[in-house]
């Protein structure tokens, strides 16, 4: 069609729907180890919708809608996400923490984001490594950061954070009403990537041992008498703020302090009541110093040497991989 003497032509564009079907304009691939809520916030941002309104679009309940979906993703929303992103259902489901054998050790999700304005003695629902966020090509939040037994980054060796370094509030990216990426605090607008101090070697060894033991539990190994390791670790009560609290109820600051006390041999804030859970915590802290050397020599014997890279100094071998490698060796021996 041509108009007037200037000869401007107007050509109707192909309808978006006929070109792209019901797919949203931008489809974001989940990153390795990413938490569902993190992927949803990135997906919303990429498609030009602030997370608060994206939750309404998905008809997800609650102000902290995305964090709730981490724990239980209804089939209706899963189907809708698959239809609009064309990412397989199983890949989306793998981003959630459901079903969750470590539920007792997950940081608690409060009823509303306002309650995340907690004093520094209270737990928040999500931690993060500022160095990881600063280094990521597209910053994202990891599933492991919701575990109360994690206090440092295995990659960078620095401490995690559980609140904004500027305003001190817990994270609330699901409440963001402006088109701002989730590595910016939804309360005050400050960047979350301000560096933290390194964790001590003792704390990192204890944390790594607990992580290895939990991986073994998740891969099917059970403790004697069928006891659950997460239940045992999660049921111990520590005295903080004059109240007995389980590890999942403690802020990052108190959990880091607890790990230091356990590894430095200082008096620990256990209550006066002795329990099998407290005895177990002490036993794990006692063996943690020897653990790294044992796993490394086992790793050298049964696994190929990893390529040198930024992770090689801090990440260390994974116990679940080692046990699987040992099982394979045993099978091969029996087959001879
Ligand atoms: Zn990191
Ligand atoms: Zn803030």
From TrEMBL:
Residues 27-160 form the TniQ domain. Pfam families: TniQ. Keywords: Plasmid. This is TniQ domain-containing protein. It comes from Sulfitobacter pontiacus.
């Amino acid at each position: 069609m041509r108009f007037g003497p200037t000869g401007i032509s107007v050509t109707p564009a192909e309808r978006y729907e006929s070109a792209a079907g019901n797919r949203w304009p931008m489809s974001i691939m989940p990153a390795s180890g990413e938490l569902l809520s993190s992927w949803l916030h990135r997906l919303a941002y990429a498609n030009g919708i602030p997370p608060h309104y994206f939750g309404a679009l998905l008809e997800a309940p609650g102000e902290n809608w995305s964090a709730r979906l981490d724990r239980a993703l209804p089939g209706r929303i899963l189907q809708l996400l698959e239809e609009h992103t064309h990412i397989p259902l199983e890949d989306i489901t793998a981003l959630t923490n459901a079903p969750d054998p470590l539920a007792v050790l997950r940081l608690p999700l409060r009823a509303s984001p306002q309650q995340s304005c907690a004093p520094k003695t209270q737990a928040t629902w999500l931690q993060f490594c500022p160095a990881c966020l600063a280094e990521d090509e597209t910053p994202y939040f990891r599933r492991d950061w919701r575990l109360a037994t994690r206090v440092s980054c295995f990659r960078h060796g620095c401490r995690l954070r559980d609140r904004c370094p500027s305003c001190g509030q817990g994270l609330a990216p699901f409440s963001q009403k402006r088109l701002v990426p989730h590595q910016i605090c939804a309360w005050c607008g400050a960047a979350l990537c301000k560096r933290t101090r390194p964790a001590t070697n003792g704390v990192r060894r204890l944390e790594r041992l607990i992580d290895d033991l939990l991986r073994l539990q998740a891969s099917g190994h059970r403790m004697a008498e069928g006891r659950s390791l997460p239940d045992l670790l999660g049921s111990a009560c520590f005295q903080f703020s004059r109240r007995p609290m389980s590890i999942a109820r403690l802020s990052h600051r108190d959990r880091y302090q607890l790990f230091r006390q356990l590894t430095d041999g200082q008096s620990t804030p256990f209550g006066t009541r002795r329990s099998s859970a407290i005895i177990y915590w002490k036993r794990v802290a006692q063996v943690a110093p020897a653990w790294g050397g044992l796993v490394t020599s086992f790793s050298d014997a049964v696994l190929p040497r990893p390529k040198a890279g930024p992770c090689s100094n801090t990440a260390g071998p994974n116990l679940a991989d080692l046990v699987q490698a040992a099982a394979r060796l045993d099978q091969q021996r029996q087959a001879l």
